[in-house]
Amino acid sequence: MMTCSILMYLMVGILMVKPCIHSDWISSVNCSLVHIDLSDEVMDCRGIVNFKCLRALVNITTSNKTSSLQLYYDEDAVNSRLKTNSFSQCFYTPKCQRNKTEQETEARNIKQALITQRENLTCFLSPSHPEDAICRRKYNLEMALYYLLWPSLMLFGGIVLVGLVKLNQHLALLCSEISRDEFLDNQSNQAEGRIYQLLKCRSGETAEQHKPLS
Predict the structure, then answer these.
(1) What is the pTM of this model?
(2) What is the pLDDT of residue 193?
(3) Residue 209 and residue 203: Cα distance in Å, rounded?
(4) pLDDT classification of 44: cutoffs 50, 70, 90
(5) CA angle 137, 142, 147 (to 5 degrees)
(6) pLDDT in the model for residue 213
(7) Confidence of residue 74 (pLDDT cuts 50, 70, 90)
(8) For residue 135, which of 122, 144, 148 has the smallest C-alpha distance?
(9) Which end of the chain has fewer CB atoms within 10 angstroms, the N or the C?
């Protein structure tokens, strides 16, 4: 159990804690949605297919200056665009699937949700991406602590089990020592009793031998 928890610590540290520590999407500001539309985009998924690309622009005000930024869902949407050297400005990349109708329905639902919250959006900014904003941080402290909770509980449970085993062994050793001491005490008492009986018998015989004849 303890070995498994240590392996989980390593996995969570690499996959969650490290990106959280190195993430520079830390500036949180209020932003308002100014433009959103759906357009066709080409994606290489099981062959070349089209999907509905959701583009969104937001306005933010910092230091009495208003600027328009391209809105993305999270860090992965920005990083995937940079890794593929794509100029796509899609809010998110849909899952790779054949059903185009489901993709369009998903994109329209997300569009409607953004329009509903257009005046009450929270955006995160990064100094390394001055023209972009995201509406959700995938790697944050709360998520890292949440994933660290389970290996911590497993490690604590392993320590408790090891402690109980050690305590059980100590109590068993203590009981065996007490039983041995009691056995030695009983043997000593029995030996003393036999010696006393032997001395008593010998003293009685001696007294009979020295008794004057009448």
Answers:
(1) 0.63
(2) 59
(3) 10
(4) low
(5) 105
(6) 47
(7) confident
(8) 122
(9) C
